[in-house]
Amino acid sequence: MANLAEADVKQKVRNFYDQIGWREVGEGVYQNARYEDLRPVSREYIHRCHMRVMQHFKPEGQYFLDAGSGPIQYPEYLEYSRGYRARVCADISIVALREARQRIGDRQTGGHGLFVVADVANLPFRPGVFDGLMALHTIHHLPIEEHRAAYSELYRVMGGNTSAVVVNGWDTSLLMVLFVSPLRWIRRTRKRAQRYFGKSTSRKAQDDEEEIIARPEPKGTFVSKRNAVWLQREIGSEIPLEIRVWRSVSVRFLRAYIHPWLGGRWILRLLYWSEERFPHFFGKYGQYPLIVIRKGRIGDRVKPVNVDD
Ligand SMILES: C[S@@+](CC[C@H](N)C(=O)[O-])C[C@H]1O[C@@H](n2cnc3c(N)ncnc32)[C@H](O)[C@@H]1O
C-alpha cells in the first residue's frame, strides 16, 4: 500500500492534470502539448515515432489497456487499439477520462472505450486479461519506489503471447547532453558579449533568440526518471524487457536545431532512418526509450532479455 508521501505525490499529479495539463488551450490541443514540438517541420518525424509503438501490438484482440491514457491526445493514439474489441483507458485524472470518452466514444455512442479511474501501480484487473498494453509517459509520474510495482502490474495483467509498451524519458541522455550543452554555452557567451558591447538587438529579438536557443522545458508536475542501467538492474532482472528507441531527441533539441531553412525535414528523415537501423543504441543513449515487455505463453519460464549493441 502506498505510504503518505506517495499518496501525496499522486494527489499532486492528479490535481495538475485535472486543473492544468488537460485544459484545452486550442481546438483539440491541451496545455500538455506545450511539451511537444507541433511545428510542421517536425510533424513527419513525430508522427513516425508515434507509429513505432504500434509495431509491437497484435493487430487485433479483445481488451487493450491504455494505462495513464490521458485524453488520447494525438490522432495516432487512436490507431493502436483499432482492431480490439475494447480499449480500457485507466487514469488517475477524471478530466483525462472524460476527454478520452469524447475522443474514442463508448458503447452507447458506438465507440470502443471503457474508462476506469485507476493507479498504474495497483491495477484493478484480473491477471492475464489484456491482449495489448501500453503506458506512455505515465510511470515517470510515480515515486521511484513504485516503478517496480507499475511494471509488475502491467506484467501481471498481460495475457500470454502478448507485448506491452512503456515509453518514458531517461533522466539524462548522452546524445542530448552532447547536443544541448553547447546551447547553454552559446547563451552564456552571447549574454557576456551583450554586457560587454552593450545591447545591440531589441528586447523582442533577444527574447526570440533565447526561445530558439535554450528554452527550458515548461514546468510541470512531479516526475522521477532514471537511466538504462537502473532499468535493467531494477526491473529487467525480474521482467523480460527490451530497450528500443521511441524518439531519440528532446523537444529542446528540435526547437534549437530543426528548422525548415536548415533542411530540418531531411535531418529528421536521416535521424529516423538511423534510429530504425540501430534501435537499441538510440534507445539507450537517446532521450526517450520504447520499452517492450513480452510475455510468452502462460506457463513458459521467464527469461530476462538483455540487449547490448
Ligand atoms: C504525460 S500524461 C501522458 C498521457 C498519455 N499517455 C500520452 O502519452 O499522451 C500522463 C498521464 O498519466 C496519468 N497518471 C499519472 N500518474 C498515474 C498513476 N499513478 N496511475 C494512472 N495514471 C497516472 C496522468 O493523469 C496523465 O493523464
Question: What topology emerges from the helices and strands here?
Answer:
Layout lengths: L3 H18 L2 E3 L2 E2 L9 H13 L8 E7 L7 H5 L4 E8 L2 H11 L8 E5 L14 E5 L10 H11 L4 E6 L6 H24 L5 H12 L13 H7 L6 E7 L3 H7 L6 H14 L1 H7 L2 E8 L14
Parallel strand pairs: 3-4, 3-6, 4-5, 6-7
Antiparallel strand pairs: 1-2, 7-9, 8-9
In short:
It contains eleven helices and nine strands. With 309 residues, it is of the alpha/beta class. The longest helix has 24 residues, at 174-197.
Overview of the structural elements:
The chain has 309 residues and is α/β, with parallel strands linked by helices. It is built from eleven helices and nine strands. The strands form two sheets. Strands 5-4-3-6-7-9-8 form a seven-stranded mixed sheet. Strands 1-2 form a two-stranded antiparallel ribbon. The longest helix has 24 residues, at 174-197. Bound molecules: S-adenosylmethionine (SAM). The site of S-adenosylmethionine has 19 residues, from helix 1.
Identify every distinct bound molecule in the structure, by name, code or SMILES: S-adenosylmethionine
Report Rg: 20 Å
Q: Please summarize the sheet with the most strands.
A: 7 strands, mixed
Morphology call: globular
Query: What is the helix fraction of residues, given as a range?
Result: 40-55%
Mean pLDDT: 89
Assembly annotation: single chain
Number of helices: 11
Percent in strands:
15-25%
What string gives the helices and strands in order? HEEHEHEHEEHEHHHEHHHE
Termini gap: 38 Å
Strand order, biggest sheet?
5-4-3-6-7-9-8
Structural class: alpha/beta
Low-confidence stretches: 207-217, 304-309
Q: How many beta-strand elements?
A: 9
